[in-house]
Write a structure and sequence with these properties.
The chain is of the alpha/beta class and 110 residues long. The chain has one domain (2-108): STAS domain (Transcription Regulator spoIIAA, 2-Layer Sandwich), CATH 3.30.750. Helix content is 41%, strand content 31%. It has 4 helices and 5 strands; from the N terminus they run ββαβαβαβα. Strand 3 (42-53), helix 2 (55-70) and strand 4 (74-78) form a beta-alpha-beta unit. Helix 1 (25-37) runs parallel beside helix 2 (55-70).
């Protein structure tokens, strides 16, 4: 898994590629927690290159969403891959996350 972060004035865009599973979910969570601890509570996740997301990855999404929302922010998903979309739907979590077809729309949501 590879994570890159680009910070804009009102939102941080976190691009993830590869697999988010039990082996990588800790690194994923650490990167998002570090953003929240710095007060960067508006997060757009670019998940267009995510090949797989496990229950451990889903737990991170739900936990970080709750964290940033309690601080007045939000977490949205930009360009989810087909695997991410399917996994969110199967888990019943698709209703929790606002998803956008492209990064620009996700950034504009803030």
């Amino acid at each position: 898994m590879k994570i890159s972060i680009k910070e804009y004035k009102r939102v941080s865009v976190v691009s993830i590629s590869g697999r988010i599973d039990s082996a990588t979910a800790g690194d994923f969570e650490k990167a998002l927690i570090e953003l929240a601890e710095r007060g960067r509570n508006n997060i757009a996740l670019d998940m267009s290159d995510v090949e797989f997301i496990s229950s451990a990855g889903l737990r991170v999404l739900v936990t970080i969403r709750k964290t940033v929302q309690s601080a007045g922010g939000d977490l949205v998903i930009a360009e989810p891959s087909e695997r991410v979309t399917d996994t969110l739907e199967i888990a019943g979590l698709d209703v929790l996350f606002n998803t956008y077809d492209d990064r620009e729309s996700a950034i504009g949501a803030f």
